[in-house]
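[agent] plan:
  1. take the single chain provided in the ticket
  2. run structure prediction with default settings
  3. attach structure tokens to the ticket
  4. add a short note for the reviewer (M.T.)
[agent] executing step 1
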Amino acid sequence: MKTKPTCAIAYSIDLLGDKWSLLILRDAILHKKTRFKQFRESKEKIATNILTNRLKFLLKEGFLELLDPEGTKKSKQYLATKRGLSTLPIIIELYLFSIHSIDESELSESQINIKAGITLNRIFFEKTKHEEYLEFLEELKSTMSLKK
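[agent] step 2 finished; step 3 output follows
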């Protein structure tokens, strides 16, 4: 049986050390993706079996919650929790670590906008994206409760 690391960095890497977890959380928080199909269509082309496993893991560990208003496969939506949102500074720092190594001609319009926002004022960008995501969640959940 695997023991929980006693080092904070080792523990964080156990939780988020694969590239897919952070990319899924990036897509949820920054791009407001909620559905399996949306995550699968990301630029990085995650395999469906890996996506399924990572979504299950992120749900189990409390980074995502499942909104499933109709109880069907197509109605499932994955939403970042408070714990999931706490990864935003990590995502931003990783972004800042390497964004200047990527030729801007390789970036989409959305990626260029994110780059401009983060590099112009990182703290403001983080605060704004955090607030926007909370508003998005509130709107989504209220829409779902109206449909019931």
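[agent] step 4 note for reviewer: The chain has a mean pLDDT of 89.
[agent] ticket updated
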